[in-house]
Amino acid sequence: MTDGSPLAVAMEEEESTAMAMEVEESPSPSIAPRDPPKIQRLEESVVNRIAAGEVIQRPVSAVKELVENSLDADSTSISVTVKDGGLKLIQVSDDGHGIRREDLPILCERHTTSKLSKYEDLFSLSSMGFRGEALASMTYVAHVTVITITKGQIHGHRVSYRDGVMEHEPKACAAVKGTQIMVENLFYNMIARRKTLQNSADDYGKIVDLLSRMAIHHNNVSFSCRKHGAVKADVHSALSSSRLDSIRSVYGVSVAKSLIKVEVSSGESSGCAFDMEGFVSNSNYVAKKTILVLFINDRLVECSALKRAVEIVYAATLPKASKPFVYMSINLPREHVDINIHPTKKEVSLLNQEIMIDMIQSEVELKLRNTNDIRTFQEQKVEYIQSTLKFSKSDTPVSPLPSGQKTPKVPVHKMVRTDSSDPAGRLHAFLQPKPHNLPDTVSSLSAVRSSIRQRRNPKETADLSSVQELLSGVDSCCHPGLLETVRNCTYVGMADDVFALVQYQTHLYLANVVNLSKELMYQQTLRRFAHFNAIQLSDPAPLSELILLALQEEDLDPENNEKDHLKERIAEMNTELLMEKVEMLEEYFSVFIDSDGNLSRLPVILDQYTPDMDRVPEFLLCLGNDVEWEDEKACFQGVSAAIGNFYAMHPPLLPNPSGDGVRFYTKTRGNVEMESVLDQDLLSDAETAWAQREWSIQHVLFPSMRLFLKPPASMASNGTFVKVASLEKLYKIFERC
């Protein structure tokens, strides 16, 4: 029943309509509910085969387990033979203490081990193995044969295993001291796994890499590894008293001579007790892949966090795409390590891992900074550009190609210069030498080789949310097309005082180096926030005098003295403002102003680059006038922008002495006949400043841009990049001519 109100009537109609729709839409035939599936207990053979697939993932997993068993048996010699990448045969022989005859029946049963007897033993374990799963797992996916002899026996015993049990009673046989285990037809009953492992060369390479790592750490054991039927071993290490000698014998002389020894020791007082010793490569070592050999309590493991931390330190020390070699052995209390977190034991969990990695990272960075003052470069003789331009077709040497091979043909309109390091391809190589005699310091610039050591600070940013927001803004505004251009462009030369010519693929661009350097310095200031190195000024300069000097330079009518009092007042107010902010400027930006109001220290934004000190007055005036000090985010952005503008590679204040610019350095002499002569001192200063700027643009700015700059989208439309030529379009034009 309803009360007759419109609302009640409407609700009743709506309910009846919904019920009618529900009746119409419901399916006429009813579907019987599905019974829940029955839970069954798997057969033991199925359980064991599944577990075996986790423990023995590929042939190198089996080799690792067998070699670790040999090390636990106090072996001094371990030999590995492999056939078809380990799928057909893995044979590991050692001279350890062997296996007792009475232990052979349960040798390959699951969870049978001599390493521990109760769970608490895990926390004081010194052996490599402990679960008793490896040999059992191998018997479920392969055919395993064991030959062993213990000390004092006159003969050994041979026994074969399948699915965890012996196939026959142990048979007496001739044997040498120790144990030999043969694993044949690996994954014979796992067709899918075997098909994915058909590349035997790849698996054998992994085995060689494993034994190479084992050999340099266990230098009291001799290792050898060879393919079945091969005479020469691919890994052969002899007993050595020096770990560096082991590295030399396994990885070669070129690696060993580039290594630096590192050591870190920490007590309980630091919150993380451990000892680390190892070797890291210096800046002369070049490789395409990072090699991190890490042992924790003599166990070969992987640690992605430590690897990433070390790579951050090396990212700017090494040339682009080059990777380091690192060997580390870390010892810490066994109760601080959980070794039971991975089926193959390749990873461990550490107590206070972050503290330990941070200390190791700092020590590696300190060692590199102290030893990388000298870089070795391979010099290559380059012919004069004139001889390059004047050869004829008949003079072109033709190298014979092997039979059956053809030279890869590149379309004419797609050909680009591929060797960006060749000086003959740069713009200045085509220019006539300047007639003026440059001082030795300037002429030597052309001989200086770049050794950019752009350090990425491991603690790049502070935890302030405002700084994180500014960095997020940099990332979100990044133009992906310009980013690709900046990362892969080739510097050609300076087109004028502001624009540089750069080549990207088949396109030629004019790039505004002032805008690019200003944006790069701004972004680097945010990334290095509160973690700057410092430039110490030889003569501290008073703030008030510098700001007053900047105000006088901005004055369009310097002869008018009426505004001097106003300028002094403005300089005084800005000085007082900056003196109130000295703690913040020093802590966050390494701009140090002493108690007397003297500027004595500036931050290092890019290594190997010092800003133009003539622009210090303008920088301080900008800090006083253009920064919003009350809002934290706006303040940090304003100070970073001021630093970016100060460190940007502006043209020197002295006019460019090349071409017609030399007239600015002439002066008149004599009263009767006006004779023009060059001011050699001023000219020399100008030539030095401009040559140093061009060197910095080529060897500091562009390498740093490729590493760090994230160009904002505004650069695509504000004239920072201007395309001036395209090889495809030029080819079409010349094709019509």
TrEMBL record:
Residues 556-583 form a coiled coil. CDD domains: HATPase_MutL-MLH-PMS-like (cd16926), MutL_Trans_MLH1 (cd03483). GO terms for cellular component: MutLalpha complex. Residues 247-369 form the DNA mismatch repair protein S5 domain. It is found in: Nucleus. Keywords: Coiled coil, DNA damage, DNA repair, Nucleus. Pfam families: DNA_mis_repair, HATPase_c_3, Mlh1_C. GO terms for molecular function: ATP binding; ATP hydrolysis activity; ATP-dependent DNA damage sensor activity; mismatched DNA binding. GO terms for biological process: mismatch repair. InterPro entries: DNA_mismatch_repair_CS, DNA_mismatch_S5_2-like, HATPase_C_sf, Mlh1_C, MutL/Mlh/PMS, MutL/Mlh/Pms-like, Ribosomal_Su5_D2-typ_SF, Ribsml_uS5_D2-typ_fold_subgr. Residues 1-36 are annotated as: Disordered. PANTHER family: DNA MISMATCH REPAIR PROTEIN MLH, PMS, MUTL (PTHR10073), DNA MISMATCH REPAIR PROTEIN MLH1 (PTHR10073:SF12). Belongs to the DNA mismatch repair MutL/HexB family. This is DNA mismatch repair protein S5 domain-containing protein.
